[in-house]
TrEMBL record:
Residues 81-160 form the Core-binding (CB) domain. InterPro entries: CB, DNA_brk_join_enz, Integrase-like_cat_sf, Integrase_catalytic, Integrase_recombinase_N, Integrase_SAM-like_N, Min27-like_integrase_DNA_bind, Phage_Integrase. Residues 184-374 form the Tyr recombinase domain. The keyword Repeat does not apply. This is Integrase. It holds the Pfam family Arm-DNA-bind_2. One of its GO terms (molecular function) is DNA binding. The keyword DNA-binding applies. SUPFAM superfamilies: DNA breaking-rejoining enzymes. Keywords: DNA integration, DNA recombination, DNA-binding. One of its GO terms (biological process) is DNA integration. It comes from Phytopseudomonas punonensis. Gene3D superfamilies: 1.10.150.130, Intergrase catalytic core. Belongs to the 'phage' integrase family.
Length: 391
């Protein structure tokens, strides 16, 4: 760390560097002294004086190191901003740069979780241990814990950019508790449950749910779907928009580049779409409507309240939220042996690592014949010893 571990070292022919901790930040400052034995001892005494001033609360960074770029960061006005003030300001700045649903999620976490718990803490004093100790008191799922940390981590990244803190205390770290069940655990519907649910529905509601089971589209994507997104000739539907309650009836572009995609219309999905034409095709606007209002669905919540919950009760099927239709599609495709990369593209993921992690138990394991197709196709004619015997 420095001379004999004392935090003092020569860094050039004309300067000595001292290292000390201030407000949880490791600070390095240079003194314009030739690194002679005498000057190194003077630097050690100066460092000891700095640490004493810090310990007694009288240290003035700008007075001690007036030319340091860190001095402004530790100025009294910079140190006075607490977590509540910073997050409120951060939330306002985010509104113009994220989707309505993302902003609404951030707003709830900031206002209902972070500010009440951590609002009085100075931003510069916020430590990983403080966050961990607070998270440990919450009786919520790991999914909720992850969402809280994601929001705070994003805000603290911006605090680093503003030079309010030197490093993000949550960078490269995530807190989770073992044994907790996620809100979004994969719990697909069996083929029999699917048949029973569809039998309990009729008309537009039945078409919507069958289409959801066989495309894997998110509910927000389903309600934003227009007839102009359907390519009858290629047998595909193009997904480029999503609509949530937070977007106030306005469709927004998908969150990720991979989310903008073309989905192959498998036979059951195509059949549902053709049946839906009788209800909304002539208007050539939204594909699926709320049968009660004959207007586009406003999002996941009205679907759950006015159609989905009732249908599951009538069918006698254990309740799962509508998002499980997406998990059902993925598990069906993987169980049937469809390629994970194809499934990932259908669902709007950029690669299949998430597919393997979330849906791994539905992916068929290798059988005794694994590898024989490649063996037959590529080994013949290469003169490999024993290849003729195996083929």
């Amino acid at each position: 760390m420095g001379r004999d571990g004392r935090g003092v070292r020569a860094v050039s022919d004309s300067s000595i560097e001292v290292t000390f901790m201030y407000r949880g930040v490791r600070c390095r400052e240079r003194l314009s002294l030739k690194p002679t034995a005498t000057n190194l001892k003077l630097a050690e005494r100066h460092k000891i004086a700095i640490e004493h001033a810090i310990a007694t609360g009288i240290f003035d960074y700008s007075a001690t190191f007036p030319g340091s770029p860190r001095a402004a960061r530790f100025a009294p006005e910079a140190c006075r901003e607490n977590v509540a003030g910073f997050l409120t300001r951060w939330l306002t700045s985010k509104k113009q740069h994220v989707s309505s649903s993302t902003y609404e999620g951030y707003r709830k976490i900031v206002e209902l979780r972070l500010v009440p718990a951590l609002g009085t803490v100075m931003v510069i004093d916020l430590k990983r241990k403080t966050v961990r100790d607070w998270l440990d008191t919450l009786h919520v799922s790991n999914k909720t814990l992850s969402n809280i940390q994601s929001c705070l981590r994003s805000a603290l990244n911006d605090a680093v950019d503003e030079e309010l803190v030197e490093t993000n205390p949550l960078a490269g770290w995530t807190y989770a508790r073992k044994g907790l069940v996620k809100d979004d655990d994969v719990d697909p519907f069996s083929p029999e449950e699917q048949r029973t649910i569809l039998a309990a529905l009729e008309g537009q509601a039945c078409n919507l749910v069958q289409f959801a089971f066989w495309t894997g589209m998110r509910t927000s994507e389903l309600v934003a779907l227009d007839w102009g997104d359907v390519d009858w000739l290629r047998g595909e539907v193009h997904v480029s928009r999503a609509m949530t309650q937070a977007s106030s009836g306005k469709a927004e572009v998908t969150k990720t580049v991979a989310g903008k995609r073309s989905i192959k219309l498998l036979a059951p999905a195509l059949a549902a779409l053709k049946a839906q034409k009788a209800y909304t095709y002539l208007a050539y606007a939204e594909v699926f409507q709320n049968p009660r209002t004959c207007q586009r669905w406003a999002g996941d919540q009205p679907i759950r309240k006015t159609m989905w919950t009732h249908a599951l009760k009538k069918a006698g099927v254990r309740y799962r939220r509508p998002y499980q239709t997406r998990h059902t599609f993925a598990s069906m495709m993987l169980s049937a042996g469809e390629h994970p990369m194809w499934v990932a593209k259908q669902l709007g993921h950029s690669d299949w690592t998430m597919i393997a992690r979330v849906y791994g138990r539905w992916m068929p394991s290798a059988d005794n014949t694994a590898g024989t197709r490649a063996e037959h196709q590529f080994s013949e004619g290469l003169g490999l010893k024993g290849a003729e015997k195996n083929s």
